[in-house]
Amino acid sequence: MRPLRTLWIAGCIVGALAIAGGTAAAAQGWPSRQILVVSPFFAGTTYDLVARLVLDQVTRQIGQPFVIENRPGGGSSAGVASVVRAEPDGYTLLLSSSDMSSAVILHKSLPYDALRDLEPVALFGGQPSMLLAAPGKGFSTVDDLVTAAKANPGKLKFASVGIGSASHLAGERFRVVAGLNVRHVAYPGPFEALNDLTAGRVDFYFVPITPALPLAAQGKVVPLAVSTTARWPPLPDLPTLGEMGYPISTFLIWCGLSAPDKTPRDIVDRLNEAVRAALELPAIQKRLERIGFKTAAMDPDQYAQFFADDMASTIKLGKDADIAPKN
After folding, report:
1. If pLDDT is split at 50, 70 and 90, which confidence band does 24 have?
2. pTM (2 decimals)?
3. For residue range 118-128, what is the model confidence (pLDDT) as tens digits?
4. How many CB atoms lie within 10 A of CB 315?
5. What is the distance between the alpha carbons of residues 71 and 270, in angstroms, rounded to a whole number?
6. pLDDT per residue over 235-255, tens digit each?
7. Buried b (16+ CB within 10 A) or exposed e, 29-45
8. Element (H, E) at 195
């Protein structure tokens, strides 16, 4: 029996080496054709705009095109699941985002484990939100808003574009950290929410920086703070939430690239290097800044930790804010 066992072990070793050798060979020849990037969102989102801008530059660097295919559905889970099931050969990637963290608290179960089944490749960066208050309410600072909310428990309202949306989670983070008793009002879209904010039918709303800036400049809303760790250049006098004593200043709407688990590390590293080189170009940075997006280059391990931290923070928020899953 011992010789047979020895032969079986030897066969396993040879097989494993053959697979490893094949994977290494595939990685060395990568990329030899176009690369599919699955976007689990509808076309035209900020995520799509960022990905197309960055990957157009990466195409020039690696010599093969990136084709972005929109596969919305299931609260973005359908597109994510399709990448998880794809061959880990570097030719199918995911436009990953902060939505993957919120999906965990919105669904009792998902057809994948984002931390286990995906390989973080490169972070593009993030878009901060601005805390806006309705005009005519007498709120000129964050402290004004907090004081009014605590003096009138259950009466102030904040807007969002739906349960689990970035605006909802930002509002809940603020509510929990500030210890407020305020009501959440969900709208079908940002235009309806902004209309009610400017009309004073809701009291505050966390809005992505790009649509918030013109409204603030026109005096239609009152900007109170920005959700970045440093002040935003177009509004240098606007404080961060961290400065105001509310430690949620790292909240970002972020996106990047992920690959199926077991994608060769050589391919992951080459992709990461190409994305980081693109993000370092001043022309790319300026174009991203125009849509309110700030670059944040990380290596794959740093991105993996960033994603894990974001996931843990969002799960904790779901529990603290008592956000019930949909299914």
Report:
1. low
2. 0.86
3. 999 999 999 88
4. 14
5. 26
6. 788 999 988 888 764 567 899
7. ebbeeebbbbbbbeeeb
8. helix 190-198
Q: How many CB atoms lie within 10 A of CB 183?
A: 12
Q: Residue 250 to residues 45, 97, 170, 253, 319: CA-CA distances in angstroms? A: 22, 15, 11, 10, 19
Q: Which structural domains are found in the chain, ordered by start? A: 35-126+252-320 (3.40.190.150), 129-226 (3.40.190.10)
Q: CA-CA distances (angstroms) from residue 288 to 34, 209, 210? A: 24, 12, 11
Place of tokens 């597109």: 79
Q: Are 270 and 50 in contact (CB under 8 A)?
A: no
User: Which two tokens mark 171?
Assistant: 């509002």
C-beta separation of 87 from 30 below 8 A: no
DSSP 294-327: EE----HHHHHHHHHHHHHHHHHHHHHTT-----
User: Is the model's pLDDT at 1 over the cut of 50?
Assistant: no
Structure tokens at 183: 């009501």
Collapsed DSSP state (helix, strand, coil) of residue 125: strand
Task: List the structure tokens of 191.
Answer: 């235009």
